[in-house]
Structure formats: structure tokens, C-alpha cells
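Researcher: I'd like a structural prediction for the single chain below. Treat it as a standalone chain; there are no partners to consider.
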Amino acid sequence: MRLLLACAVVAAVAGVAAADPDPHRKVIVLEYRAGSSALPGIASRVVGQISKQTGLDVLSPDQTRAMYGEHLDQVIVKCAGEADCIAKIGAKVGAAEVVLVGVSELGDVILTMQRIDVGSHSVMGRVADSLAAGAPPNDSQLGQYLTRLLPPSDFVRFGVIAIMATEAGALVTVNKEDRGTTPIEPLKLSAPATYDIHVEKQGFLPFDTQIELPADSKLELPVRLQRPGGHVAWYQHWYVIAGVALIVAGATGGTILYEENKTATSVPVMGGIGTR
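Model: Treating it as a single chain, here is the predicted structure.
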């Protein structure tokens, strides 16, 4: 049976632990090996899981090496896992935190992860696990380690849906929840997730669609309400609305036109745009 050695040991630094850190802060992942060749590529896998589960700006060891210099590995060995020394590496590349992944062997393979705050040079959290030789952790296990290592706020992600209706006073519901009448402020919602959008106003056909909202993005949804029997512009047909969305990337602030090909079976009927 695998032995969980330590789970999210939070350093007693009251000033640092008092508030949730920036969920988009820069974090570098470094790898320290104590004479072990086990778990090849483990640091890259940790980077992948952090990128997938959080909105952190995470850099791999290779990306950090390109910024720091080719002697990075020698410096990591010299630091021997000491938080003060590792934090100086983070400071040189402008990171807020370092996740130090350690691999050693004491019969079993010992995998450790330390979360080191660059500003205070202190260990904010630590996770360690004893693994049988030849039994690397799967992605689910890595995800569990990270939820113990990083603060819960890092795993809460959002997206924004901006509903732009042609008619004022239309009732907007999201997943059957009343969100007010148009015009409404952009909606900040948990993401990634799928949302059913319904817009209706007396005297107009109702508008329905389903939105796949990516994390850390903004989606602009134009809603042109039509009177019964009215003309429907080509860009208001369900197959156009379902396939085109404007996503504003939070990291760059740029606008990206995102297009997908959708089939009729993958998109709900949108009664408000002439499909009934």
C-alpha cells in the first residue's frame, strides 16, 4: 500500500497565508533529483496538470532554463532543495512562486512537491508520496497532489458571457435562472462549463442557444429578437450562431475569432431565430 507521507503542509507565514494569491500569477516548475532516474518527464506532467486545472501562468523547466541560462540545472543541484536558494531562481525569472518537484529513492520512489513563495523565500506547502518502483502516478493522482499543494482559489476559474440583445426589456435566463432584463452587464460564470441561454420578450419569438464557455475567456453573444413571421438574417440562423463566437483571451487582451463546424444533432433548437 502506498504511503502518503505529507499533505499540504502550510508554512506558518501569517502575512502570506492571509489572502488568496493572484490566480494568474507566474509559477515555474523545477525538478530536483537526488541520484534517481525514476519518473522520467514528471516535471513536464506536473506543468501539464497545472495548466489544465488552473489559470496560473506556468513555465516548464525548459522554459525557465531559456530565461535563466543553461547553468540552471547545476544551480538547482547546488540548492539541494533549500527554499531560500530555489526562491532566488524564481526571482531572477520574475516568478511569484516555484513548484519544486523532487525525485529520490529509498527502496520505493519518493516523489515530493514543494510550493515555494519567491517573496518570502518560504515553503508554503509540501506534498510527498512513496511510490512502488515502476508505478508512476497517473494524471488523477497528480491532480490530487496539486489540490493539496496549491490554494483552493487557484482551481476556481471563470469565463464571461456578454449578451447583446437588440431589444431592451427582454428577460434573460441562464440554465433556467433569472439573470435580469436587457440590457444586462456581462455575466461572470464558472468555467469551463456549458450554459443554456434563453431570452424572451412579449411580442417576439424566444431565443434559445447553448454556450460552451471556456475558462478565462469572454464570449460575446449577439441576440437579435425577431417578431413572428419576420425576416431572419443569414447570420442569425442557429448553425451560424452555434459556430461563431468571439473569445477575448484574458492573458493577452486580444480578440480571437473562433469557428467550429457544428452538426444539427449537436446544437439545440433556437426558437428565437426562426427555426420553429
